[in-house]
Amino acid sequence: MPPNILLITADDMGGDTPGCFGGPAEVSPTLDRLAAEGMTFGRAHVAIAVCQPSRSAIMTGRWPHRNGAQGFEPITAGVPVLTRLLYEAGYMSGILGKVEHLQPVEAFGWEFTRGMRELGMGRDPRAYGEASRQFMGEAAAQGRPWFLMANAHDPHRPYSGSQDELDRFPAEARATYPAPSKVFGPGDDVGDVPEFLPGLPEVAEEYREYLSSSRRCDDVVAEVLRALDETGAAGDTLVVFLSDNGIAVPFAKANCYLQSSRTPLIVRWPRVTRPGTRVDTAFVSMIDLFPTLCAAAGVPEPTGLDGRSMLPLLRGERQDGRDTVFTVFHETAAKGRFEMRCRQDDRFGYIWNEWSDGAREYRAENMMGRTWPAMLAAASSDERLAQRARFYVHRFPEELYDLRADPHSLANLAEDPIHREALKGARRHLLAWMAETGDPLLDTYRGFLQDLEQRVVR
Known about the structure:
With about 450 residues, the chain is an alpha/beta fold. It has helices spanning about 30-35, 50-60, 65, 80-90, 125-140, 165-170, 170-175, 200-230, 260, 290-295, 310-315, 370-380, 385-395, 420-435, 440-455, and strands at about 5-10, 40, 45, 90-95, 110-115, 145-150, 235-245, 265-270, 275-280, 285, 325-330, 335-345, 350-355, 400.
């Protein structure tokens, strides 16, 4: 019998937030245990760092421009989805939370669904555990393998204990979910805020609220895994954990930086993955999950996939061709179009901002909350911070970062002559990738590069 598949997702959790990925020790006790029992990937990236398109890419194994869901819209009719293929192989499929973030819902053929409000606004660990137990029991009664996508709504805003939470969720909604099992206050040592953000008091306070919400996400994972254990299915289940994108703050979610797309990928597959294994050199994209899970389930891959199976890596084998990763961005939740493309390798991160023209201003949901207003307020008396804020709003058409020396992408090297060859190489590689995948902005990027060459000649 093929393995059951449990895909657990966090909402807006940074790739370095869990303790097993370098985050504060008390944030993720369950995820840390899962990592110790399975395999972690230090260079795992989502295809696009915003919720619905990221999840659509996972479930179709295709880039957003090839599955139709570039923003918050449905996938194109006829695009194969993972759950339908698994159903044809006898799998029962269920989804907990974020149901409407895979559109059209009916295309996925879910046989068991629990929406956000049935799960305490997607923040009640016990409700996730009970729903998981029910789903697993129904599949067992039918003698079928199963696929369950358990989507926590934490640590998405509003963060636990924040004023935003009081403003956005009425009292009756807040009463449906508990506080995190650990709430981080001013006296807790959680380290500094991520280095791509300024260490302002308001930013630090919001970061602690975010960590509290991340702990409640860990609580959700604990209850889902408890249900797995109690139903006796753990030994026959492939467990995957990841986040759909980075933290919802400036320079992270809805961008193409390292901290935008890096995801804390953990895979535990009894008798396949070796406990405590870390894969820190191979780049993997979450569009690779589709063919990987097909291989695990013994389901033939459909034609037209963009990802490729990670099965050799899960078995502890070497896999060539994993020295780079590409990511994209198209559209914000508010329908703001800010086209970006990114290519990263073990040293450099290159970003092309098609939208950046010196006048247009970037706006996205990551500028909600207290962090961005705090940055703007402090910028009035801090010229360095003022420059960073201006850069965030306008960018430059090209960005290049030495990610070994500058993993938080603070120093743009695109105009540094020392790194000219690295820039040219990244351009060539991105152009080839865009041509290979039929990127709709291929001609635009080719024209951009030709204009650059003409300026050099002049």
